[in-house]
Amino acid sequence: MGGQLGFMYRQLTFKPKPIPSSTRLDNKVAIITGANAGLGLETSREFISHGLAHLIIAVRDESKGEAARAELLRNVSNDSCRIEVWKVDQADLNGIVAFSERVETLPRLDIVILNAGVKYLNYEKSPSNHEMNVQVNHIGTSLVSLLLIPKLQASARKINAPARLTLVGSEGQFWCSFKEHSAPNVIERLDEQAAFPPAMERYYTTKLMTQLWTAELASRVTSDEVVITTVNPGLCASSLHRHDSSGALNFFLKIFAWTSEQGGHCLAHAATHGTSYVHGAYFSEQKKTEPCSFSTSSQGIKAQKKLWNETIDLLKKECPRASLTQFDKP
Ligand SMILES: NC(=O)c1ccc[n+]([C@@H]2O[C@H](COP(=O)([O-])OP(=O)(O)OC[C@H]3O[C@@H](n4cnc5c(N)ncnc54)[C@H](OP(=O)(O)O)[C@@H]3O)[C@@H](O)[C@H]2O)c1
């Protein structure tokens, strides 16, 4: 059952489960962005309980990260997991480069979950003049993904097994028109205040962009080295909704929302389930499923390539420090 009715039905009838106890993460190193709260924190907890050796909580506010680290240390049984808090603000492109340089110093990197995200219902601009949902959910996430791929590839070669990269999307990809895709420059159009739509449309659009970005990235990276997936964690109660005090949302959260822990199960599943056959897959309700029809249509594939090229051009211009040569080919 599709559409909003199908969504409500699935929220009520499906309950995400923890990953199986047979999934072991011993010796593995993982990075989870936005892991100081919500789904990222819960995924951290789950990974640690499966034997993870080294976790990097990548956060924009290190004091929140330290509080999360203390909470994890208090509540987890695997006291051999090394937990570190590293700063990364997805509104600061040069800061992302510094973060990726630090990542290069790790002995290995097995799993990355790009979970950090925002939902702004009003127009706000980032310091580099991009609309905030676009800045954090698309531009920042895209740059982190590009800069961490080489480390994931090097680790995969070292241990002769593919590493994992999971980007957190949303079912919202099904619920936006993304009419901006036909603008001469999509990101420039999305940055215009006059183009900012009411309600959730912009947040959903940036999550559709995550779907398109993941598909293009997966087509450019071999699954022998990095298995790339995207995941819909479902509607979950978390601080994502902090800028949205509408009665409708509160009603939806009360009736339909899963807990952050259940959303965390979805992330943990998408980042560990299967091997090369899930490369490029969209997961929802803990199974590989079809993304929205726009993303696989000829229009959607055109938009995917256009968005890729625009994003690479923007990153080269606004962040010349970032080495993107691996992704230069058309
Ligand atoms: N909850 C849902 O219903 C739902 C549904 C579908 C998809 N998702 C997706 O799931 C992911 C996690 O969301 P959540 O529900 O766990 O929300 P959350 O509790 O608000 O967590 C979001 C995380 O992203 C971080 N973040 C925000 N702006 C950032 C920036 N500029 N740089 C780096 N980190 C930044 C936040 O840090 P601060 O704490 O410092 O703000 C926080 O750690 C998001 O990508 C969201 O879009 C959530």
Automatic annotation (TrEMBL):
Biological source species: Periconia macrospinosa
Under which name does UniProt file this protein? Dehydrogenase
Q: Which InterPro entries match?
A: NAD(P)-bd_dom_sf, SDR_fam
Record's PANTHER family? PHOSPHATIDYLINOSITOL-GLYCAN BIOSYNTHESIS CLASS F PROTEIN, PHOSPHATIDYLINOSITOL-GLYCAN BIOSYNTHESIS CLASS F PROTEIN-RELATED
Q: Where are the transmembrane segments?
A: none
For the keyword Oxidoreductase, the answer is yes
Acyltransferase as a keyword of this entry, yes or no, is: no
MF annotations from Gene Ontology: oxidoreductase activity
Q: Which Pfam families match?
A: adh_short
Record keywords? Oxidoreductase
